[in-house]
Amino acid sequence: MDAWRLINAGFINTVASDLTDSVLAETHKRGHIKEYAAINAEQIQLEDDSFDFVLCKETLHHMSSPFKAMHECLRVAKFAVVMIEPQDPMIDLPINPQYDVPGYEEVGNYVYTFSKREIQKFAYGLNLLGVATKGQTDAYISGCEYAHCLPDDHIWTATQKMIQDHEVQISQGISKASYIQSIIFKKAIGADIFNTLSQAFPNWNFVRTDTNPYL
Fold first, then answer.
1. N or C, which end of the chain is more exposed by having fewer CB within 10 Å?
2. Rg of the Cα atoms in the chain
3. Do the beta carbons of residue 67 and residue 118 sit within 8 Å?
4. Pairwise CA distance, residues 120 & 136, whole Å
């Protein structure tokens, strides 16, 4: 789906990936995506800087070693890695103690959640150029997979209401977004571009992480 959206947005060279390529092959057969590959993000069999950018959307939280996958994604990306993952409710303010329990999915994996501070520390440790982060609010109602984004669809209406209510709580400082969007910039992107982006998108939190005075 993400590759399809990127293609429709004008990105020409887009490679869709998944742990296996069975669904990707069918999607390619139907003409929705172009290139695709079966890739294990924790051990990517590709050369350094194979792509300009890497997008990980709702995938790292399924893994047993998500930071290993982040290292691998950074290795094969020339400029930056974009991540959209569940946000940790217990790191960064405000903290909600009722969520201080581990989450698991039916297939057996622990649900790893991320925080702004955690991602920044990851970039500090590698002395990368910088990080940009922004919250993203979502809502899930059973059956929404078959709903339509129309005013007379009760699931669509209820979903919008849930998101609006959550965003009010965020604005009041009593809650935070359920997802965190982040962009981890490598030095190849250039400090001038990073600074320009930080000024052009003030609703994102930009932090330079190439601050180690001993390197």
1. C
2. 19
3. no
4. 17
**Contact by Cβ (8 Å): 130, 208:** yes
Q: What is the DSSP-derived secondary structure letter of residue 98? A: G
Spatial separation of the C-alpha atoms in residues 198 and 107, rounded to whole Å: 39
Q: Which CATH superfamily is domain 39-137+178-208 in?
A: Vaccinia Virus protein VP39 (3.40.50.150)
Instruction: Locate the DSSP E strands across the chain.
Output: 15-18, 35-38, 51-57, 77-86, 130-136, 179-185, 205-208
pLDDT, tens digit only, all 215 positions of the chain: 899 999 999 998 999 999 999 999 999 999 999 999 999 999 999 999 999 999 999 999 999 999 999 999 999 999 999 999 999 999 999 998 888 899 999 999 999 999 999 999 999 999 999 999 999 999 999 999 899 999 999 999 999 999 999 999 999 999 999 999 999 999 999 999 999 999 999 999 999 999 999 99
Where do the structural domains in the chain lie, given as residue ranges? 39-137+178-208, 142-176
